[in-house]
């Protein structure tokens, strides 16, 4: 499994200073725009944010903003996609120990989901999902494409599960992210680093023990 340095530390990736090339400068401006737009969505909520306000906060012209993102919905989708890029990658390695792999993945994932910016987006989605029907498909697509299916493929290749791989991947993800769900739904405190480590180790061990029992019963 491969994770970035920012993921290992559980912090937001730093904004890279713009290189000298014009294309690189434009790319840096686009990245900065998405970071600021994400902050504005979290601070104000999806409904209250305007494209004009985001352009002003990011220091870009409205012409550039609409050239890069045709409307607020497209900009919000881009912000979600930028956040998804921070998710850890679950990759199969025959030489690796599956339990160690799953623990590393689970810890990187939980660290990502307790970051302030990720929690802020999650709160926004929960708060405004009933008003904006497009949020549901966006969330499901991100979850399935970037978390469920890669993890399901890993579980199948590592011979941890035999059939129903997607549902088993969803189960493991739910177990790993329980502290985040508890924080968002009932107001429990988010775990610190030590608590994250203990929780992920327990979740992965419990999941694997359950799979072993199912295999023996079959």
From TrEMBL:
One of its GO terms (molecular function) is transcription cis-regulatory region binding. InterPro entries: Homeodomain-like_sf, HTH-type_TetR-like_transc_reg, HTH_TetR, Tet_transcr_reg_TetR-rel_C_sf, TetR_C_Proteobacteria. Pfam families: TetR_C_7, TetR_N. Keywords: DNA-binding, Transcription, Transcription regulation. Residues 50-69 bind DNA. Residues 27-87 form the HTH tetR-type domain. The keyword DNA-binding applies. This is Transcriptional regulator, TetR family. It comes from Sphingobium herbicidovorans (strain ATCC 700291 / DSM 11019 / CCUG 56400 / KCTC 2939 / LMG 18315 / NBRC 16415 / MH). The lineage of its organism: Bacteria, Pseudomonadati, Pseudomonadota, Alphaproteobacteria, Sphingomonadales.
């Amino acid at each position: 499994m491969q994770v970035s340095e920012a993921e290992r530390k559980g912090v937001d990736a730093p904004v890279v200073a713009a290189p000298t090339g014009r294309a690189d400068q434009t790319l840096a401006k686009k990245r900065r725009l998405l970071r600021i737009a994400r902050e504005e969505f979290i601070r104000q909520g999806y409904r209250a944010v305007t494209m004009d306000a985001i352009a002003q906060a990011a220091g870009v012209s409205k012409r550039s903003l609409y050239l890069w993102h045709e409307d607020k919905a497209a900009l919000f989708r881009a912000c979600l996609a930028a956040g998804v890029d921070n998710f850890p990658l679950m990759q199969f390695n025959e030489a690796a120990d599956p339990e160690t792999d799953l623990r590393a993945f689970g810890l990187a994932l939980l660290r990502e989901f307790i970051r302030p910016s990720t929690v802020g987006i999650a709160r926004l989605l929960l708060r405004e999902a009933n008003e904006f029907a497009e949020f549901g498909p966006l969330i499901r697509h991100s979850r399935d494409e970037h978390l469920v299916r890669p993890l399901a493929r890993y579980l199948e290749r590592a011979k941890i599960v035999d059939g129903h791989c997607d549902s088993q991947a969803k189960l493991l993800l739910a177990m790993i992210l329980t502290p985040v769900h508890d924080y968002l739904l009932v107001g429990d405190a988010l775990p610190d680093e030590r608590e994250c480590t203990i929780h992920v180790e327990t979740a992965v061990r419990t999941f694997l023990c359950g799979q072993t029992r199912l295999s023996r019963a079959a």
